[in-house]
Write a structure and sequence with these properties.
The complex is a heterotrimer. By secondary structure, chain A is α+β, with helices and mostly antiparallel strands. Chain A folds into 3 domains: 294 residues, no CATH class; 111 residues, no CATH class; 58 residues, Arc Repressor Mutant, subunit A (Orthogonal Bundle). Chain A has 15 helices and 15 strands. In chain A, strands 1, 2, 5, 6, 7, 10, 11, 12, 13 and 14 form a 10-stranded mixed β-sheet that branches. The radius of gyration of chain A is 29 Å and the shape is elongated. By secondary structure, chain B is mainly α. Chain B has a domain of 43 residues: Histone, subunit A. Helix content of chain B is 31%, strand content 6%. Chain B is built from 3 helices and 2 strands. In chain B, strand 1 and strand 2 form a beta hairpin. The radius of gyration of chain B is 22 Å and the shape is flat. Chain B starts with 6 loop residues before the first helix and ends in an 8-residue tail after the last strand. Chain C has a single domain, classed as Amidase signature (AS) enzymes. In chain C, strands 1-3-2-4-6-5-10-11-9-7-8 form an 11-stranded mixed β-sheet, sandwiched between helices. Chain C is globular. Classes of the chains: A alpha+beta, B mainly alpha, C alpha/beta. The interface between B and C is large, with 52 and 74 residues. Strand 9 of chain A pairs antiparallel with strand 2 of chain B, so a sheet runs across the interface.
């Protein structure tokens, strides 16, 4: 049985969070009423001309510097010519053979190991408008007509192309998370896949292990979340393996990922490959990033994720996988503040990557947008460490803090979550439980260790969950000892 | 020698709907024009850099400052067809790329 | 007594300031001339009489208040219909934009409007500025006021005819391959193309982005200097606009040609040039020499290839520039079962033959497999043409040639032969490829009584020398012939 190797490359499009569009001064905002953020330039009216947004160019250079790319001494805008109703000029101003940034790499944590993924290029272009297919199915096939909203047309878009260095859907996921984290830390984009400010297309092929030559490449589009990307790639890798395994030939094509069906399908094939007739845009002059500008942008780079991860691992002793998650989400600043407020780093990290992450996910918000502050977390961790509340109790406190921003101590008070740790109070309950459960007590004294759990449970029940389970166990053992 | 051109392919690339008569007429005319234009290949120019602009400049930019654009009604004023706040077009049967 | 509409701009301006005439008088004079001559000339696609009168009244109020007015204030102006005018249809001579009303003004018009210009109308032109005879307009040809059976030249034929016929004191056109200089030569007016990038292209509906240049049609060289001064200067909305402030070109206009080194492009006075054109040009050379210019022989060795390069570069850029005309956001839209069909029908119906030819030529030249050989190579030839000019400037301050190899030809004479039509631009194209300033100034009539134009080309950004020499020549020649059409009118 031939073993196949999966080869994946990712092309990510990042909408920059500049104040204005790439080539005109319309506001760059998400979610506005249709066709209200438009002007003659981004509508492609006759006679209009593009003028590049300086900040967008700088953000692109910043991204390249963060990825270790070479910043091109001369870079050109090219026109990519094709017809589509969401493209006001029926050409997209993009970059072709002289992109702003060439090469680079991104280190990605996968299964506890660091993999270095190569970056081919980073370039700058403009986004298209948004098409809605109206009619029966809401999808292209069977639509009666289409509607165009040009608010997004002309928004600055950075394309980051990776080398085909990824070897599994899991690696692809890790790469996306790392890239997203990096871009977020640079402050150049909201990178929200659900809002379209981060988009991803994938190229995937399989080849027999050990082979140098790449297999037939398939492009996958329409993956709207990191999870989609992983699922789509897993499906496609399997499809390709199965096809090759049964002797079928694979076609170089573009396939559409259907989230609901959980499968890729062939998009209507073209008679010929697209001829974009790239040529340098005669309305624009070359970009020649000046040494001073590049150095200034380099000096303005924040500490990069790799350095942050390394520091967290060594200074705080946290495991690599957890550190990766924290840094990818840009949570390390929060963590450090919680630690400076007195929290134990490990405990705080666990709460963040565990329960707090779950709450954020469910609410669909970022940590910065939540009501939980580093001091809240530090308080919570402290209360658990002191034994004032149990872990179960702490989960309740966290949920309330998240919902209302209430102080930990206040929640504990209001809900009576304080654990009973006091020896005399707890002792009394322990004694009662021992008295009322002679058989389990016998069994325990006879050597059956597991029974202690039952007895602790009885103490918890009798105390209506308020007992400190560790204390309860300690007292039980103490009083049951011969 | 007039140049042979796949005129149907070019017309489709350029989204020009032409009648058979036009296709034939243009095929001939373009062949002759290209024959003349092809003379540029007679010039030895391997080491010559291309000129994109007669008076070149570089790094021409715009500050990232928002300005009012067109209001929605002005934007849609010239629209051949609209529905509500949108430009309306016949169904699109192919993905862009 | 000369009609107000037949005066040069500076003469009219003097009368306005002295109170002899009002701006309203000036506008009414032009509008009356339009009424009288339009049925025969067809220079206009849209008229803005009411707006012009409105503007005139404002100017008159300011004059009455003793305001110091800019030089262009109160002078009737026409604009080629490829320049956007807010609220006034701008069609580019094409069905595809027949009902298009721009929501914004082009920068050059915005500046002129601000300075008090009065727009009498938008002029007819070859569709999307593609042509050398104004026969490619979807709305009918323009007729040369000198001989109504002949073309006025193109693509800015309407603006040229309007100035020649007294319908507007001066006008703007656009010169991409000669589209202002050639019609100026064929209609006996002054056509001045400044350095590429000197006037803003924002609002100039693009044909060939690296060649298009807003240019002037005027009765004399002083007016060219005045009008040009009002439209040049950096525009932040045009990334290709030269980063220099406006300049007053009337400064130094009287400098004369003493000691100026003028290179005659002798190769361009050979075969293919009509005898009348050659004769008037030789006379002009003699006149300039008498005025003190140093005449020499110059050559642009790659000029032969300039035409071929132009007919690859311009169509390539235009094929992309005209892609936006697809019926989605503005302009004509045809029926279609799906969007591709709609676009193909819209463009098939909306564009004329010449536009379609150039779009396809350009698409081909840029397509996969052909780019290097065609577009890429043409860009290299462009470099060689630039180097030819640079070599010439070592020896000369100006280059001289006829503007056009022929005088105005009959309407329909070259209609079926695109290649023959392209050859009309053979002397004007090099200055577009190099981006240098160039002027066509009337140098006489041929035996048939048709105007001949003399071309002078100068160094990039040296409009001053070009204007100075042209002015000296013009003043000495004293060309004052009028189109027969006008003689009939005013007799």
């Amino acid at each position: 049985m031939t073993t196949y190797e999966t080869v994946i490359g990712l092309e990510c499009h990042v909408e920059l969070s500049t104040r204005t569009k790439m080539f005109c001064s319309c506001a760059n905002e998400f979610g506005a009423e249709p066709n209200t953020l438009v002007c003659p330039i981004c509508l492609g009216h006759p006679g209009t001309l593009p003028v590049p947004n300086e900040r967008a160019v700088e953000h692109t250079i910043t991204i390249g510097l963060a990825l270790g790319s070479e910043i091109a001494p001369t870079s050109l805008f090219h026109r990519k010519n094709y017809f589509y109703p969401d493209m006001p000029k029926n050409y997209q101003i993009s970059q072709y053979d002289l992109p702003l940034c060439v090469g680079g790499e991104l280190d990605v944590e996968v299964d506890g190991e660091t993999r270095r993924v190569g970056i081919t290029r980073v370039h700058l272009e403009e986004d298209t408008g948004k098409t809605t297919h109206a009619g029966a199915t809401g999808r292209i096939a069977g639509a009666d007509y289409a509607l165009e909203d040009y608010n997004r047309a002309g928004v600055p878009l950075v394309e980051v192309v990776s080398e085909p260095d990824l070897r599994s859907p899991g690696e692809a996921r890790a790469y996306l998370q790392a890239l997203r984290g990096l871009l977020r830390s640079l402050g150049v984009s909201d990178v929200k896949m659900e809002e379209g400010s981060l988009r991803c297309d994938a190229n995937i092929s399989v080849r027999p292990e050990g082979h140098e030559e790449l297999g037939t490449k398939v492009e996958i589009k329409n993956m709207n979340s990191i999870r989609s990307v992983e699922r789509a790639l897993a499906f496609e890798a399997e499809r390709q393996r199965a096809a090759l395994g049964s002797g079928e030939a694979l076609v170089q094509e573009t396939r559409h990922w259907d989230e609901d069906r959980g499968a890729t399908s062939s998009m209507r094939s073209k008679e010929e490959a697209f001829d974009y007739r790239y040529f340098p845009d005669p309305d624009l002059s070359p970009l020649e990033p000046e040494a001073e500008r590049v150095e200034r942008l380099r000096s303005e780079l924040p500490e990069l994720p790799a350095a942050r991860r390394s520091r967290l691992e060594t200074e705080r002793g946290l495991p690599a996988a957890q550190v990766a998650q924290i840094v990818d989400h840009d949570w390390d600043g929060f963590l450090e503040e919680a630690v400076s407020e007195g929290a134990d780093a490990n405990a705080a990290a666990n709460w963040m990557t565990g329960d707090l992450a779950a709450l954020l996910n469910e609410a669909g918000i970022q940590l910065a947008e939540s009501k939980v502050t580093p001091r809240h977390l530090a308080d919570l961790v402290g209360l658990v460490a002191e034994g004032t509340i149990s872990t179960a109790g702490a989960k309740q406190v966290l949920a309330e803090m998240f919902a209302s921003g209430a102080e930990a101590a206040v929640v504990v008070e209001e809900r009576g979550l304080a654990q009973i740790s006091d020896e005399s109070a707890l002792g009394a309950i322990v004694d009662e439980v021992i008295a009322e459960n002679p058989e389990p007590v016998e069994q325990f004294r006879g050597g059956k260790e597991g029974v202690i759990g039952f007895l602790v449970g009885q103490v918890m029940q009798r105390s209506k969950g308020a007992a400190n389970p560790q204390e309860a166990q300690r007292l039980l053992r103490q009083r049951l000892a011969p | 020698m007039p140049v042979e051109i796949d005129i149907e392919h070019v017309a489709r690339l350029a989204r020009l709907g032409l009648t058979p008569e036009e296709l034939e007429r243009f095929r001939e005319q373009l062949g002759m024009i290209l024959e003349h234009a092809e003379r540029v290949t007679e010039v030895a120019a391997e080491d010559v850099p291309p000129t994109a602009h007669p008076l070149p400049s570089s790094n021409v930019f715009r500050p990232d400052e928002p300005r009012d654009g067109l209001g929605r009604e002005d934007a849609l004023a010239n629209a051949p067809d609209r529905e509500g706040d949108f430009f309306k077009v016949p169904p699109i049967v192919e993905e862009a790329e | 007594m000369t009609e107000l509409c037949d005066l040069a701009g500076h003469e009219l301006a003097a009368r306005l300031r002295s109170g002899e005439a009002s701006a309203l008088d000036a506008v009414e004079s032009s509008l009356a001339r339009i009424e009288a001559t339009e049925p025969e000339v067809s220079a206009f696609l849209a008229r803005s009489a009411d707006d012009a009168r409105e503007q005139a009244r404002t100017i008159d109020e300011r004059i009455a208040a003793g305001d110091d007015l800019p030089a262009v204030a109160g002078i009737p102006l026409a604009l080629k219909d490829v320049l956007t005018t807010r609220g006034v249809t701008t069609t580019c001579g094409s069905r595809i934009l027949e009902t298009y009303v721009p929501p914004y003004d082009c920068t050059v018009w915005a500046r002129l409007k601000e300075a008090g210009s009065m727009l009498v109308g938008k002029t007819n032109c070859d569709e999307f500025a593609m042509g050398s005879s104004n026969e490619n307009s979807a709305f009918g040809p323009v007729h040369n006021p000198w001989d109504l059976t002949r073309v006025p030249g193109g693509s800015s034929g309407g603006s040229a005819a309007a100035v020649a016929a007294g319908q507007a004191t001066w006008a703007l056109g656009t010169d991409t391959g000669g589209s202002v200089r050639q019609p100026a030569a064929l209609t006996g007016v002054v056509g001045m193309k400044p350095t590429y990038g000197r006037p803003s292209r924002y609002g100039l509906i693009a044909f060939a982005s690296s060649l298009d240049t807003v240019s002037t049609f005027t009765r004399d060289v002083r007016d060219a200097a005045t009008l040009l001064s009002a439209i040049v200067g950096h525009d932040p909305l045009d990334a290709t606009s030269i980063q220099r402030p406006p300049e007053d070109y009337t400064d130094g206009l009287e400098g004369g040609v003493e000691g100026l080194r003028i290179g005659v492009l002798r190769d361009w006075l050979g075969e293919g040039v009509e005898p009348g054109v050659r004769a008037r040009t030789e006379e002009a050379i003699g006149r300039l020499e008498n005025l003190g210019a140093k005449i020499g022989e110059a050559t642009l060795p790659h000029a032969d290839y300039a035409l071929s390069a132009y007919y690859l570069i311009a169509p390539a850029e235009c094929s992309s520039n005209l892609a936006r005309y697809d019926g989605v956001r503005y302009g004509h839209r045809a029926e279609g079962a799906n969007v591709i069909e709609m676009m193909m029908r819209t463009r098939g119906e909306g564009f004329g033959d010449e536009v379609k030819r150039r779009i396809m030529l350009g698409t081909y030249a840029l397509s996969a497999g052909y780019y290097e050989a065609y577009y890429g190579q043409a860009q290299k030839v462009r470099t060689l043409v630039l180097r030819d000019f640079e070599a010439a400037w070592e020896e000369f301050d100006l280059l001289l040639s006829p503007t056009s190899p022929t005088v105005a030809f009959p309407i329909g004479a070259k209609a079926d032969d695109p290649l023959a039509m392209y050859l009309s631009d053979v002397y004007t194209i090099p200055a577009n490829l190099a981006g240098t300033p160039a002027i066509s100034v009337p140098c006489g009539l041929d035996d048939q009584g048709l105007p001949v134009g003399l071309q002078l080309m100068g160094r990039a950004l040296d409009e001053a020398t070009v204007l100075r020499a042209a002015h000296a020549f013009e003043q000495d020649l004293g060309f004052d012939a009028r189109p027969p059409l006008l003689q009939e009118l005013t007799s």
